[in-house]
Each structure stands twice: as C-alpha cells, then as structure tokens.
Amino acid sequence: MNYLATKNIEINLSDQIKDWAKEFGFSSVGITDIDLSEDQRYLDKWLENGYQGEMTYLIRNNSKREFPDQLFQGTKRIISVTMNYLPEEYNGQELLERSDRAFISGYARGRDYHKLMRSRLKKLAKKIKDHAPNSNRVFVDSAPVLEKAIAQKAGLGWIGKNTLLLNKNSGSYFFLGEIYTDLDLIVDNPVAQSHCGTCTSCMDVCPTSAFVGPHELDARKCISYLTIEYKGIIPPELRSKMGNRIFGCDDCQIYCPWNKFTHFTDELDFLPRHQLDDIDLCELFRWSEDDFLQKTEGSPIRRAGYESWLRNIAIALGNANFSQEIMQSLNLRKDSTSEIVKEHVNWAIKEQERKSYE
User: Fold this and answer.
1) Which candidate, 346, 344, 339, places its Cα nearest to that of 313?
2) Are 71 and 144 in contact (CB under 8 A)?
3) Largest Cα–Cα distance in the chain?
4) CA separation for the pair 37, 30 (Å, rounded)
5) Pick from 11, 17, 55, 19: which is nearest to 231 by CA?
6) Residues 149-195: pLDDT tens digits?
7) Considering 16, 246, 258, 332, which has the largest number of Cβ atoms within 10 A of its Cβ?
8) What Å distances lie between residue 101 and 94, 284, 316, 333, CA to CA?
9) Parent domain of 238
10) Nearest CA to 168 among 192, 188, 150, 185?
11) Is residue 245, in this structure, part of any structural domain at all?
C-alpha cells in the first residue's frame, strides 16, 4: 500500500472515531500524540512547591504520566473525549446565597461519572478494534494520566487561569476520558493560546484565595481539596470562608464568562439524587452512617467518607445564619466519638452562639 493510500485510511479512521464517539454520547473528541514533557515539567514544579497537600498519589508514577507508552506499552496516540454533565436547572449561584442549604458541586449530585464514562469508552474502544485491530486501554481519572494537558493537545480547549480545561463553545462543565492506542492516527491541532484574556473572575471570587497566580492553584487552600481529599482538621482561618460548601466548590466555574456557553447534559445519570441540589443542612447532619452509605451508593460523595461529611456540614452550620434548629442539631453531635467531628462541631456552636448576640 502506498503512502497516500495509508494516509487516507488514517484520516478516514480518525474521522470515523469522532463520529462513533458522538454516537456513544461524548460531547467532543480529539486525538493527540504522546509528547507531554512540557506539561510534566509544569507538574513537577507544582509538586516541588508542595501545593498538592496530602494528595501524595500525585508524586508517584511520574514517568508514566510523562511517557504514556510506559503506562500502556506501545501507545502512539491518545483519543481524548469530553462529556457534559451539568443539568439545565443547575442552581449553584442561588444555593451559595442560602446559608441553611447545602452546596454540593454540580458534578457530584448524581451518579459517579467514572462508571458511566468508562463503560462508554470501552464500547468505543471495542468498536475501533472491530474496524482496525489494535491494542488499546481506556482511562477515566483512574491512572497517572495528564488529562487536561492531553485534552488541550487534542484541540478540545485550553487550560484556563482556574486550571480547568475551557472550551469556547461549551465552557468547562464536562468530564474527561482517554483511550490509549497503538494506532497511528492523524492528530488534531492543539489549542495554541489561552482565551482568558485579562479576565481574572475565577481568581477574584475564590473564597479562600487559593490561586497563587494565573494557572497556579494551591490545593491546600482549595475548598474542593479540603472537603473531599483532606481528612484532617481544617484550619480555623479557612472555615468561615467555606460558607455552605460541603462537597466541592464551583465558584471558579460559576463566575467564568465562558460558561455562559455551557451545553447542558441530557444524561439521566447526572441528574441530582436524593434532593442533593436543594437540601437542608440540618437534614443532612441527621444522616446516620448507614444513611450516608445508602444514599451515596454509586455517588462521588462516597470519596469524602462519613467523618469528613459530618465535619464539612458542621462547618457549614457554623457559617449559617443563627437558628435554634441549627443549635439543636449541633448539640446532638457535640459528644461525637470522632475527635475531628467534635472539633468542628464545637467551633460551629461557638459561631452560632456569637451570632445569636448580634
């Protein structure tokens, strides 16, 4: 087969893969090579500054991040996909203004996206194999993969000042997934420049001032990290800044101008469960551990664990406007067997007492 014929096959297959991806419910798809050395250097510098906090897993397997063929032998190309997750009735900004209600990040209110996306990616990978025998492997936030860097190289957006992948046509409310393959596919042009311009909305609205500068986030101050990844006692100076955010934080997306172009999802699995899009903090604080495990089955919220769940809600109750119901709820847990929960409940009680005199 001559060079031109081979190239036409590669182009046709690359285009076909993108069509199949849309059929499986992915919002956008791009293809890139495996040179991630520049992005790895950025990550190394970030890690040297200690911004990862207790996320020590980010330090491990660095060579597999930089060299994808070490993670999956024979990899020549990476197929990067996005899937929109935000429902049209998303009420993030409204909830932030209601101190007695729980704010849970938009991505975590429904079913855990990992399972859904992995299932779809496996179907896509199989279809590709059926048409062009190859070795491939799918990833959905499940291995040392530089997801955002890969997506940018694949032309799916640019990494904004809020460190998230942004797309001019759909904002940032989407998940990422990848297929590593040994097929020699035609690659897409990367998004060569940022379109954030002089805008600093994401940095300006960050409740805890977690941004060290554009494109640089100190996770140790990020509410998403504090409420999900961090399992210890949250520094007192950060608690009052967390407001009613009990799992994650969407502020740097809510106020990003590009998200006026958000494409809403029609995936039923991403719709809120158990009224987690508008639920009273006191009601959540009454959940037993069995309630928590039952109502968060198949949910990203499980990652936090019950102890951190109570810790986070206690902080939110301390930040809420004073009410007797809140005081009663806090007093019921002031003798918790968990020292971490007890510390934050006692802080919240003092905050409520202080507000009762104002």
Assistant:
1) 344
2) yes
3) 84
4) 19
5) 55
6) 999 999 999 999 999 999 999 999 999 999 999 999 999 999 988 99
7) 246
8) 10, 10, 9, 19
9) 201-356
10) 192
11) yes
Tell me the chain's radius of gyration from C-alpha atoms: 22
Instruction: Provide the token pair at 13.
Output: 């297959």
User: Per residue in 234-278, pLDDT tens?
Assistant: 999 999 999 999 999 999 999 999 999 999 999 999 999 999 999
- The tokens describing 281, both together, are 């903090």
For residues 155 and 22, membership in a common domain is answered with yes
Q: How far apart are the first and last CA of the chain?
A: 82
Q: Is residue 191 part of a domain?
A: no
Task: Confirm whether 268 is domain-assigned.
Answer: yes
Q: What are phi and psi of 218, to 5 degrees?
A: -90, 100
103 φ/ψ sector (left φ>0, alpha ψ -120 to 50, else beta): beta
